[in-house]
Amino acid sequence: MRNLTFPHELVSLLKRTSKLAALTGAGVSQESGLRTFRDAQDGLWKQYKPEDLASPEAFARDPKLIWDWYAWRREAVKGVRPNPGHYALVEIEKRIPEFILITQNVDGLHRMAGNKNVLELHGNIQRVRCSDCDTFAETWDEGNEEVPKCEECGGLLRPDVVWFGETLPRNQLEASVEAARICDVFFSIGTSGVVQPASSLAHAAHNQGAVVVEINAEQTTLTPKTDYFFQGKSGEILPELVKAVWDH
Ligand code: BJW
Ligand code: ZN
């Protein structure tokens, strides 16, 4: 692992800051072995673009295809564990009085790692609900030839995630907007920042005067607006940052 040094002003700011909001994306789970959303897909799913599968139109056109894609991803998520980046965010939550973790990830790894104050903006892949009446399903028959149906109304079951063109869970979005509005420091970690409205949170935080810190393997459209940009893996940079700020 590289030996990272962090600017003194950032270390000193993080020591005294009381309001920090962190937005995470698929890059944070990459080191747990999950593909990022915009990475090329594997195996059976190589021929599809994820953007073309994550929509109500795609589900209406071919519900079985979409159900199978999510069933495959649910299996992939079951076998993975949080990585050092997730655990570093747990350490940060313990040290910052008003810490809020806003995630676009549907994999549940932040809660598994131990973060408490988590807003899941795009839902959770392990939950399944009816596409007609919204009733949650506790169990369903995965091995069926057809998409499993709702016990209440017979509607098709679907993952409880937010697809393109759908609105985000209202309470989670409102709390995220408020966190971006009042925070002193905003972290954007492992997200390409191409999906609205999540990506506008960092810009809102920047516009209200928060210090914006980005950690990403690549530069993004947010990078020019950040106060600090650290290029690399969040599973390496976040633990080093925690050490530099609080382990002295
Ligand atoms: C690492 C790393 C390591 C890798 N360490 N870093 C035109 C203009 C503006 C907006 C729109 C528009 N047309 C339509 C819209 C709205 C649309 C939108 O934003 N579209 C854009 C793509 C153009 N948004 C919506 O529809 C949203 N709803 C909405 O706006 O409602 C109001 C409305 C309704 C109707 C009409 C219009 C408005 C809903 C968005 C829902 C997104 N859902 C998904 C799928 C969830 C379920 C699933 O997982 O299948 O959420 S899409 C997908 O993208 C997923 C992710 O959460 C989200 C963000 O992706 P993320 O996390 O950033 O991943 P990647 O892969 O893009 O990036 C990974 C990053 O990690 C990269 O930068 C790497 O470099 C980095 N990295 N390894 C650190 N180890
Ligand atoms: Zn139903």
Largest sheet: 6 strands, parallel
Into which percent range does the helicity of residues fall? Answer: 25-40%
* The CATH homologous superfamily of the largest domain: TPP-binding domain
Q: Please give the count of helices.
A: 10
Report the span from N to C terminus: 20 Å
Report the order of strands and helices: HEHHHHHEHEEEEHEHEEH
Low-pLDDT parts are none
Mean pLDDT value: 96
Description:
This protein is an alpha/beta fold. It has two domains: 8-33 and 82-122 and 167-246, TPP-binding domain (Rossmann fold), CATH 3.40.50; 35-79 and 127-161, SIR2/SIRT2 'Small Domain', CATH 3.30.1600. Helices cover 36% and strands 18% of the residues. The protein has ten helices and nine strands. The chain has helices at 8-16, 27-30, 50-53, 56-61, 63-78, 84-95, 109-113, 170-182, 200-207, 234-246, and strands spanning 19-24, 98-103, 118-120, 123-130, 136-137, 157-161, 185-189, 211-216, 228-231. Strands 3-2-1-7-8-9 form a six-stranded parallel β-sheet, sandwiched between helices. Strands 5-4-6 form a three-stranded antiparallel β-sheet. α1 packs across α10, α6 runs parallel beside α10 and α8 packs parallel to α9. The longest helix has 16 residues, at 63-78. The mean pLDDT is 96. The structure holds ligand BJW and zinc ion.
